[in-house]
Specification:
Elements: H1 3-14, E1 36-40, E2 46-47, E3 75-79, H2 88-98, H3 112-125
The structure holds zinc ion (ZN).
């Protein structure tokens, strides 16, 4: 799976959410103040948590985000060789961090069944 198809899969799963690609020829004139530049890295995959304009990592050997040819408000997601193109879940994991998602600190509980029962009781009681 390619990086692009990993992100397309994430778009499809999230719904109403678009992650457009900006090509090399478009980047100089892009209207996107914020964005992600994916950079290959040998020492693991990582992303800043949430919107972090200009965020990059010292180990990438650059002093500014513009060194990657992107606007100053963009941020880096670093991908190790094992992360892409064969591991879409890692690409999506790092993208979710950039969207503000913490690892392992979220849980969910559903009350859908209870609400459904409540809804039926309401319908029955009105008859
Ligand atoms: Zn993580």
């Amino acid at each position: 799976m390619s990086l692009k198809s990993s992100l397309s899969s994430l778009e499809n799963d999230l719904g109403c959410f678009s992650i457009p690609e900006v090509s090399d020829s478009e980047i100089a004139a892009t209207a996107f103040v914020n964005g992600i530049v994916f950079v290959g890295h040998n020492n693991g995959c990582y992303s800043a948590l949430g919107l972090a304009p200009g965020s990059h990592f010292q180990t990438l050997g650059v002093s500014t985000i513009e060194s990657f040819g992107v606007p100053s408000g963009w941020q880096v997601i670093a991908l190790a060789p094992g992360c892409t193109p064969d591991n879409p879940s890692t690409v999506q994991h790092e993208m979710l961090h950039a969207l503000g998602m913490l690892s392992g600190l979220l849980a969910f509980k559903t009350l859908l069944k209870a609400r459904f029962i409540l809804s039926l009781q309401t319908e029955n009681s009105s008859k």
